[in-house]
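2 proteins. here.
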Amino acid sequence: MRPSADRGAVLSHDRIFKRATLPAILLLAGTMPAMAEGLDGAALRLPWALPFVGMLLSIALLPLLAGHFWEHHQGKIAAFWSACVLLPLLAASGFDIAGTALLHTALLDYVPFILMLLALFTASGGIVVSGNIHGSPVANTVILAIGTVLASLIGTTGASMVLIRPLIRANDNRRHNVHVVVFFIFLVSNIGGSLTPLGDPPLFLGFLRGVDFFWTTTHLFHETVFAAVVLLALFFAVDRYFYRKEGIRRGDPTPDSPVRLRGGVNMALILVIIAAILMSALVDLGGMHVAGFEIKWANALRDVILLGVTIASVRWTPARDRAANGFSWGPIVEVAKLFAGIFICLIPVMAMLQAGRDGSFGPLVALVTHADGSPNNAAYFWASGALSSFLDNAPTYLVFFQMAGAGVPAAEMAQTLMTHGAMTLAAISLGAVYMGANSYIGNAPNFMVYAIARERGVAMPSFFGYMAWSACILLPLFVVVTLIFFE
């Protein structure tokens, strides 16, 4: 009886999507005048942002409210919201404008973004830390510190997947081990990834938009070191308290074995990834024009290398290493489907933000701007962070990046923000990366670490229980960061 019931529910949901799509498309089509050339953000109205909002709310709420439906229909949900943008855009502005906008988003943003994540995800999934470490406060703090540094080199997802299992094994004899995983999410899955475009998806999107590779390293270094040192010191104090409270109550259930690192081939492949991204930033090989925008040969070569790294990792990694890490393609497939919808839904939003005060987002621009027209960097930090706490931090970063550069030609936006708007860009970057740690859904690795810890027997806090941890620990830290660096 159960399969037929599930099938009926699926059919019912499909009918709902089909019936909802047409009115949404007609609503949007009626809010935009026909345009002969270019996507004019000043002519777009707020209903064009509804698919983007709907996409992000679907990601935030459906896993909690309708988990079974979400798990089986993520692609359809992304396709629905994408259709709510593309079909009215096609009807109102014609194939040339709609097609060019889609091609621009696919070739310059989506494909490079997914290929970088895919390469790092695949290579890091073949690096295995085996053996057993005893989870003393010193050992745990060292592991968290290593993971914090590693996050900027192989990404927050890669560092989290490499280190979370060894950390759980090290503390499987501890009665109080929840705080270990919570601080791991704070540091390794989020804050540690703020120093390079490899570290966290928002920063890589900035890199694709023209932000120099080492700009984040030089401009976010002091803030990140401060936040990391404070959290590591606080963790050591908390862990030391619980460690002393427990005493030696029982032996470590994991047999003693030497710590070993396997996956040398994948470590070398990660170096290839780093070299390819640096090459695309430093080498000018010319380019070609496609549908009115330029594709640089260095970027195309980078993407080919990233794809080659992925294939090489799959072919050269022993199956036992993937199995030891519990590796599966599910997370990256989910990210690919959802971000396809996110990037498409961002097309009109980006155009409206580019219009600045003349566009529909004029009031939002005013919110993060002082009366004299200068940017309010503290407001940028908290606004980008607040949204990144509950919505995906990569598109949130793009929204505020575009907002900060409103009125500046797209080709000059990154250079302007890196120089005249350096503090504003730093505030946006730090808000998006840091505050992704405020909830389980703020950044992709958060929920992956949560799921692995639950599977390994750690009594992880609920969604709101985790937020109580972040509210007590992270929010005061972010207030101090604001007072020191943005006031």
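next one coming up
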Amino acid sequence: MIEKQFKNLDEQLEIFKHKGMVVFDEKYAKEVLLRENYFFLNGYRHLFYRSTMDKRFVEGMTFEELYSLFLFDRTLRNILFKYLLVIENNLKSITSYQLSKKYGYKERDYLKSKNFTTSPEKQRQVADLIKKMKRQIRVNGSQHTATQHYVSNYGYIPLWILVKVLSFGIVSEMFSILKKEDQVEICKVYGVEVEDLIIYLPILANYRNLCAHEDILFENKTQKEINDTVYHKLLNIRKQDDEYVYGKSDLFALLIIIKQMIRKEEYKNMTIEIENTIQTLNYNLKSIGIEKVLDRMGFPLNWKDLAKIERSKDNEQANN
């Protein structure tokens, strides 16, 4: 096995230049590499290759363009992270309200296995989830202000407080093993089908973690595909082999999910924020077009029209 050797800033820059990158200001470039990390910047290089076989940069590609794509992705992460946190908080609130109303507000009441699905193949998952939640009560009972307050003053932690310290992943898993009637009640708030929300929640949780840890976002693909929606049809997204080419396992699929889970005004604001950061990147790109970035994101050229579709009229419009 060949070991990776440390390379100083001059050597790092030389690697880029050897592949055809134009560097106008070497001092600036080395400052960026020192602050941002060569490895992280290098992760954005693929979009500027001449082809998948020819791993040299396209003619005229500059260091500033690579850094612009890096900064674009950072801004995009921050935008989406903000709205993913809104969805996380809303889901926790809606779920805890439904379960507390039906099963009680003390952990000895809402953490009974009979409150979850009775499906035989999911009983182990139910037991494991209850253990995880009880562990969170033990760990966080004295470490967070809200949980400590309830433990000290009442001797228990209600679910609407406990969800504050539960991860998005745990809440997502909890939804998948609720009784069908509870899943239906939660889905009514969003106007989505249970089967769809079961797919959506792990995707949302994964993107939430991706954004929090500053991984590459814009070209991320999920393992699971979302089901076809009315939005795919209304936006006339192109098909290949009878499958939509955009909005299934790409970043645009995430936007389709978010569209269904936040308020109309919030989604319009998010669209404006994303459009602004795309325009900034477009201004800074010289060697490649913004269409190449949008294609890698899974964004159709009319992606902004998704914000114009009224949720209450979705099905009606799709059937016309």
